[in-house]
Each structure stands twice: as structure tokens, then as C-alpha cells.
Amino acid sequence: MSLLFRRTRALEAQIDEFLDAVSEGCIVFEQGLADYLRDDKDSFEERRAAIGVFEAKADALRREVETRLYAESLIPDHRGDVLGLLESLDNVIDQAKQTLGQFEVERPEIPEDLRPDYLALGRSCVQATQHLVDSCRAFFREITAVRTHIHKVYFFEKEADRLADALKRKIFDADIELARKIHLRYFCLHVETLSDKAEEVADRLAIYTIKRTI
Q1: pTM across the whole model
Q2: Among residues 117, 120, 125, 135, which one has the least CA distance to residue 99?
């Protein structure tokens, strides 16, 4: 991070912690989804509680960074971009938390033969988030490496789209009542939204990166 934040190690550490919280929260989302799909209720509840902790930590760190940037008049030329990036990253972990929350509230009954498809979709979405975090670390530390990571975000987002489309086709081909099909599709969309959020942040990051290198 020294390229952008030469004046304070404390700010570097806070942003690193924030990125760690987003990354770990999304990994916990994948674990929680796997727990739900194998009917491990206790582990699922543990993951759901854990992602809430990571989301709250990310929120608190984002606010601390925002306060520090303004109070100490740091990086005025890039302050808006940094804050916009952190806020949009916060939306990613928020989405992960909300999705696990919806599984807990609505308890969809997912057929055994569709469970591997939901798991594969969740895995692809989380891979998109992990490469997004790598892209953001590069933005602060080594701007020339952003593109190396960001194209992987787009790859896994497209893969998530492909898996979601295939899953929705399987759902509507299944011999179950229409109401259940709609419910299962709804949760497919919920999971898929995580990769969409990652793509939105990647789009913003690509613009911020161009601005920094002009």
C-alpha cells in the first residue's frame, strides 16, 4: 500500500483488515451454503453468525477509514475513489450475509440432485469475490497488477452466469410443483447476485485504476 499511503501505516493496516474481513466473510458464505445443502443445521448457524461478525467488522473499519481520510486530510486527489471502492466492497459482504439470512428465514427444500449445482454456483461466486479482493489489494500496493486479477473476476462472474442459467433450466425441467420451482429459482438468483456485486465493484475499480495511471 505504500504507493498510495505514504503517510500512515495505521491506514494501511485498517484497509488490509477491511479487505481481510470481506474475503473471509465471503469464504464463510460458501461454507455456510455447503452446510445448508448437507443439512448440517448447527454448522450453518455457526457460519451465519460468523458472517455477521465479519460484516460488522467491515462496516466499522470502513467508517474508521472514512473518518481518518477526512480528519487527517489524506490523499485528497484519490479520497473519493477510495471511499467509493470501500463502500461498494461493503455491499459484497452485505449480499453474502443477506443471502445466508434468507436461507435461514425461508428454508428452501432443495432436491438432492440440484444440490451440487447450487454448491458449484456458490463456489464460482466466491471465487469472483476472492479475485476482487486481490484486485483491490493490487490497487493500493501495485497498481500495474490490478489487471492481472480483475480479469479473473469477470471470468468467474461469467461462469456463475452460465451455472445459474443451467441450474434454472434444471429447476424448471424438474417434476415438481410450479410454486416450488419459483422458490428454487429465487434462491439461485440470490446466490448469483454475489458475483454480480463483485462484477460491479470490478467495473468501478477498472475506472479508478485508469484514473490513477493517467
Answers
A1: 0.91
A2: 125
